[in-house]
Amino acid sequence: MALVTTKEMFKKAYEGHYAIGAFNINNMEIIQAVVNGAKAQKSPVILQVSSGAMKYAGATYLRKMVEAAIEDTGIDIALHLDHGASLDACKEAINAGFTSVMFDGSHYDYEENVRLTKEVVEYAHSKGVVVEAELGQLAGIEDDVNVEHSTYTEPKQAIDFVQRTGCDSLAIAIGTSHGAFKFTGEAKLEFGILEEIQNALPGFPIVLHGASAVDPRYIAMCNEYGGQISGAKGVPADMLRKASSMAVCKINMDTDIRLAMTANVRKVFGDNPKEFDPRKYLGAARTSIQALVEDKIKDVLGSTNSL
Ligand SMILES: [Zn+2]
């Protein structure tokens, strides 16, 4: 049991035709729920931290809590920086003990993205840390950045990008998006793009961001108990299952955790307005997140019994 990189995890996932769930963490209850869910399903797991979460909880708290999770569950965990905005942000995470960083240069022009990603790869590899890069743009809101239109990843460019930067995995845009508002019409993923990249780069792990299901049950539950969340369609489980049987080795699902947590905290207060013990509402949230994570492992990722 240790803090590990994603290298071995991805190799096994690629060969086993499943994907590994990457769940965003920012407090103890979420960490416990995710790792206990992974342990119950005997599945590998990636815990990831956005810059916003890093600011909120602090790198030291997060790392120490993840170490506690490893000691408590006895499973290997990868600790990943989600959407690192600069070399400095990646360095900070690496120095804090993260085993994997994402450098997101997707909003730069192509050559600049190549140049900056290469810098991060050189630094990270010198410290034994792996790098996820991104090419193409997802629509939606990530932390405070709002991108209105998505730009699909160009397969030929992706191949060139991977070869020139030496990145360890690549997040691509094939129709998923960040946040709770994904598809207004029918959900659609461009599997042709994934297939072309997979054929040109056999064995190379692909990452999907913005892959929450946006379960209407949680939206309804939030709103039943005083919330005002207008949901749209998320990404259906069968599409993600197909992607994870292909080259996709890591799938990010943050919105679903947020919705499950909020819905269940609201329900505790709705059912019992006199409640003021944080353990009661945070405990309910923790239970619901674990159930959600186990469902994702079974229905979306296919990573049960692969530890
Ligand atoms: Zn993302």
Would you mind describing this structure in some detail?
With 307 residues, the protein is α/β, with parallel strands linked by helices. Helices cover 49% and strands 15% of the residues. The protein contains twelve helices and ten strands. The protein has helices spanning 7-16, 28-40, 51-57, 59-73, 87-95, 110-126, 155-165, 191-200, 216-224, 237-245, 255-271, 278-301; strands spanning 20-24, 45-50, 77-84, 100-103, 130-135, 140-142, 145-147, 169-172, 206-208, 248-252. It has an eight-stranded parallel beta barrel with strand order 1-2-3-4-5-8-9-10, surrounded by nine helices. A two-stranded antiparallel sheet has the order 6-7. Helix 2 (28-40) links the parallel strand 1 (20-24) and strand 2 (45-50). Helix 2 (28-40) packs across helix 12 (278-301), helix 7 (155-165) crosses helix 8 (191-200) and helix 11 (255-271) runs antiparallel to helix 12. The protein is globular. The chain starts with 6 loop residues before the first helix and ends in a 6-residue tail after the last helix. The mean pLDDT is 95. It binds zinc ion. The site of zinc ion has 6 residues, from loops.
How many beta-strand elements? 10
- Which regions are unreliable across 5 or more consecutive residues at pLDDT < 50? none
Widest beta sheet: strand line-up: 1-2-3-4-5-8-9-10
Question: What structural category do the secondary elements indicate?
Answer: alpha/beta
From the alpha carbons, calculate the radius of gyration and give it in angstroms.
18 Å
**Averaged pLDDT, please?**
95
Strand content: 15-25%
Distance between the termini: 11 Å
Question: What small molecules accompany the polymer chains?
Answer: zinc ion
Question: What percentage of residues falls in helices of 4 or more residues?
Answer: 40-55%
Give the ordered list of helices and strands. HEHEHHEHEHEEEHEHEHHEHH
Largest sheet: 8 strands, parallel, barrel
Question: What is the count of DSSP helices, taking H or I runs of 4+ residues?
Answer: 12
General form: globular
